[in-house]
Amino acid sequence: MPDLTEAEGMDRGDGVNLAYVRHSGRAPCAVFLPGYKSDMTGAKALETEAFCRAHDIASLRLDYSGHGASGGRFEEGTIGRWAEDALVLIDRLTEGPLVVVGSSMGGWIALLVALARPERVVGLIGIAAAPDFTEELMWASMTRPERDTLLRDGVLRIPSQYGDPYPVTRALIEDGRNRLLLAGPIPLACPVRLLQGQRDPDVPWQTALRLAERLETEDVQLTLIKDGDHRLSRPADLALLRRALGTFLLEDGA
Predict the structure, then answer these.
(1) Comparing C-alpha atoms, which of 172, 88, 165, 187 is closest to residue 135?
(2) What is the CATH number of the domain that holds 73?
(3) Is the pTM of this model over 0.90?
């Protein structure tokens, strides 16, 4: 695992600074997209960077606005805003083909990035990918009083097993409805690799099956880890991530 490199920053155009770590190398460039309230210092992000550095491959990891080392307020973020954050950094800091790697919400962001830049994305890896989670996992699980609070106050604070309660905003839910993907075909042509734990308490493993079915590309491989949790950060899980990266980034696929 590499030492943490000090993050750099870039104004996205409205005074909000977006933090990132970039390493030069050969193409394709691997871009790691973290999950909801996660950041670019997690084990999977660092493992992706370490793999790339070991093989002289370009890489980029980043924090969306309101996350990690980036500026902005978390409560002002939405799926669309965070996807735009990723695209701003990708467009300004990378060139040529891309392999996008997304964890949890980052899997949804990765799909949106690939749909926005289909001419550049040559591979996609989803780790416990969570497309449509704002509707299917958040809104659907709320009680009527919780929905009433969200609609009235614009925010609802949800308990989290990962730390302090996190805010779910009305804007997040409503913006998410404009970006749902699982209701119809997902017009991506690039190959896709999905890693999913079957003991994931946050994202049902059936979501990965639905995603694989909805993708129009025929080159989709889904790996189910029977005892895998949501994080998928154990040594064996990270080995699966390295194998998926090798498929796209190494000439021999090893």
Answers:
(1) 172
(2) 3.40.50.1820
(3) yes
